[in-house]
Fold each of these.
Amino acid sequence: MGSVLDTMDCPNCGFEAWADFYYKTGEEYVNCSHCGYHYSATIKNRDKKLNELTEEDWEIKEAKQPYGAFRYQMAGDVATTCGTLIDEQEANDFRVQMKLEYQDHVNFATITRVVDGKEIIENVVEPINS
């Protein structure tokens, strides 16, 4: 599979988002780590050839006005896990999970939101080296 990575203005908040386009399949992902915007167009049925795909073979997902974005890194990992928080309940669940269940095993955890055009970063679990 080949892909083209690029940046673009987020259609939700206007901050920089990243786009990943798989040119061999036409699949696409757009994610904003500032507001949590997410868009994906993926193939549901991989048994068909590309030229046989119909609209029904595609799964389109879009979080147009999410609550925010999350980011965390587990102890011992070099990569971070990022994603979208759809609503305030998901954000509260993330806070509880990081603080109560994983705090001793996580290097850091944040929630990022864009409110009135300003980025707000909440440290859910303070970075180990802070």
Amino acid sequence: MKSYLPIEKVALLNEVEPINILNIYYKNKSDERFKIIDNKVCVLENYRYPYADEVNELRQKALIIARSENALCKEISKMCDIKQDTLYKYFFRFTFKQIKVAKQIIVLLNEYINQNSLFPADELCYE
């Protein structure tokens, strides 16, 4: 569950000026990183990369199946219109600023795990 905090607190945590976060909000008020709570604009703590943790968790589970980053990117590229090299760069940089791309990668990773794992995704982990 994602938690929304007041912009001032998030700015303090990320060591940026609140106006920098507000500028993102003013460019696109329907951005899902922002929510109005008690007539105040609130933002996700990790507003820059809101889905990075979820993508990383799924990527780790998918790597258990694929065994290498290269193999994972190759298999996922077969499932979509994203090139293998592009996927590799996404995973290497691991920023996922574009929410649309992050959501697409999440769907692809879930699909890959469901198609190729003998175990439920919840049970996949390194121990």
Amino acid sequence: MADLGPWSRLLAVCFDRTPEQMHGLLEWFRAGFELVAMGAWDAGALVAQYNARVLQLLVPGFDGPLEAGMGLNMAVDPAYRGRGLLDQVAAPVHEALSARGCVAGVGFSSAGGLAVTKASRHYAYEVLGPMVSLVVPLTRRRYSDRLTLRSTWPTAPIELDAHRDGFVRYAADPASLRHRYANHPFRRYAYATRERSGVVDGLLVFRETRLRGLPAVSLLAVHGADPETLLGSFAASLRPRRPLVHVLLSTASPLRGALASMGPALPLPFSRSPYHLITRALSSDTPAALFDLDRWACTGGDIL
């Protein structure tokens, strides 16, 4: 915590943010996640860093969740790039994650980070493939049961059915979801909830946005049983002036088929360079499912 100043300045330079924003982001990381981090220093200046959070994965064939590490905001000062510093800061982080019992490193790489991912000797992540960017015109609003749209986190108790199917998923519970979205230091999210007998059993996270100048909604996450009904009810709840929903998800996610309750899901032809799923083994018995893109079910909200 004593090094938040230098850490914030490095991330601000590398990600085109203000030091104040990065200071808040690092405090948010620290408050909600178990972290393992390493920095490279030149005298009093932090010039490279690699930071990973410990998380839980739901993996088919295993009764309980498995622990993994997700890399966050790898960064090297522009003046120090090309010297192999990423390998030097990533190696001890991966060793610490492995010693802690994490079975894998998992995460998402932007197009800019993909070349670094492939070129690094130690970083050694396998690129599984890109996420899919879809746009859904809301041509189907036939569901009569509408969701409650709100700009603040719901106050009612939340009980969400956990998915236990043939897909690898990032584990989540109401407390972790609240920290992920409601406590974010500078991003603002909205929520759509389904309540039954005073309990929230369906939760969608979204943001209002624009696609090529057109009003739209960016859907980040869908939690709860029967996502098809949740999505249909969500479509019926949105104002007509928001006729498009944008979704980023893994190629084989079952949520992709459930989008049909809102309208046809079409590839977004003018989307930005996609995020790619990446994985690396951290144990001798890392489950093979983690290296199969068709076994992953994740959405844009899983990308911090």
Amino acid sequence: MGYITASGICIACGQLFSFHPNKVPSLNGKPICKDCVDKKINPIRKEKGLAPITYANDAYQSGQNEDEINWGHQP
């Protein structure tokens, strides 16, 4: 068993943050931080009558099982 945390720059605000690499919301493969999803993007989507962006409860946590990480290999 292993742990993995990805770090990246939020495409919306430019802040560095950590996330689960296979569960974080992204746009064109670029991650979006939780604050931007919850406080910026989803309120705009709601105003426009669009469904909110959803994410797994652990999207902004370390992956706790290395078997759940997609390492770029085909299943």
